[in-house]
Amino acid sequence: MPLAESPQWRQKATDFFSSSSFKLKQAGQSAGDNIVDVAGKVGSVVKNRWSVFQEARQRRPPPGETVQERFISAAATTGVLLRKGISETKEKVAVGKVKVEEAAKKTADKSKTILNNIERWQKGVASTDVFGVPIEATVQREQSGKAVPLVLVRCADYLVISGLSNEYLFKLEGERKVLQQLVSLYNEDSGASLPDGVSPIDIAALIKCYLASIPEPLTTFALYDELRDARVSIADLRNILKKLPNVNYMTLEFVTALLLRVSRKSSLNKMDSRSLAMEFAPLIMWQQGDSGTDLRNHLRFTLKAPPKIVDTASNTTGWDLLDEDDGDASSQIPLDDASPPDYSSIEVIQCLIEHHNAIFTDANETVWR
């Protein structure tokens, strides 16, 4: 099914194309008006000079001037005026053409940038990116036979084999440079294997970064209120989660199954179900219109590559052309001024971890060898 772009970028694109269309039309009209105006003046000159010829034929010449001489004089002045009018017309046409061409070029350049950004950040199925893409688009494109993004499968398999005992797993941030390299790896090849030597802390952080990057939470916006109200009822949670799209349901089952495995090693990794729920609730469940918790924003900042200068002349990037008032998205997110935790969401995720097998009865329980 086609994917809808987010309202923010769709509105930016709509406003831009509307204004560009008007500017092109305006440029064309300007060129046309100039041409019509000058052509009209030339026409008036021709008409007036023809009247002069007619008068010259009908009037008697003054003493010493023949009719032939009067015709020659009228023709000479008419030629000068016509040449001047034609020259002005050519200049006006050239100016009008330049206006149209300049407006068209600017529109084409900006359109290309806009469409590239829409493709990259709104992610149609043809895109190769994984991070920042709607989860259904990723699974549909991968065609792996699993209803879970492969990046999560690779990370979970790695952790289950060799990383569950690491202290503060999923709490420590991981190394930003390593995370950026891993994001680039999976954006180029979603089925890639993890490089040798990557630490479990970085792998755990990559899972969190992925969940923070998707446009809509696994639990969806539509079910936010229902899940909060049913946060401690296993039966209610089970029934509400059945309303989720299959990919969301299976991925949520997969992630919480992994967290259950981690919590069972809490004596070693110091991460029980409550601690894990505190880390994952802001990444799995949030309200529509929420600009982002401090944790989600921080993880998105972690994924952000250093700014690149695309145009050395203007020093602007693609979306700067649309919105020049945006703040510096690369500035560090302050974590010490945190927004209040959503304790209801935390309780939901904690319940999903602790009662995983009783809630996800419609899924084939994730089992690692």
Topology:
Elements (H helix, E strand, L loop, with lengths): L6 H52 L8 H56 L12 H8 L7 H13 L13 H13 L11 H14 L10 H6 L4 H8 L4 H18 L2 H4 L3 H12 L9 H10 L39 H12 L1 H4 L10
Helix pairs in contact: 1-2, 4-6, 5-6, 6-12, 9-13, 11-13
Quick check: average pLDDT?
75
Q: Which percent range fits the helix content?
A: 55-70%
Structural class: mainly alpha
Uncertain runs are 1-6, 306-337
What's the main sheet like? Answer: none
Helical run tally: 14
* Shape verdict: elongated
- Count of extended strands: 0
Radius of gyration: 34 Å
Q: What string gives the helices and strands in order?
A: HHHHHHHHHHHHHH
Give the termini distance in whole angstroms.
Answer: 35 Å
Question: Beta-strand level of the residues, as a percent range?
Answer: under 5%
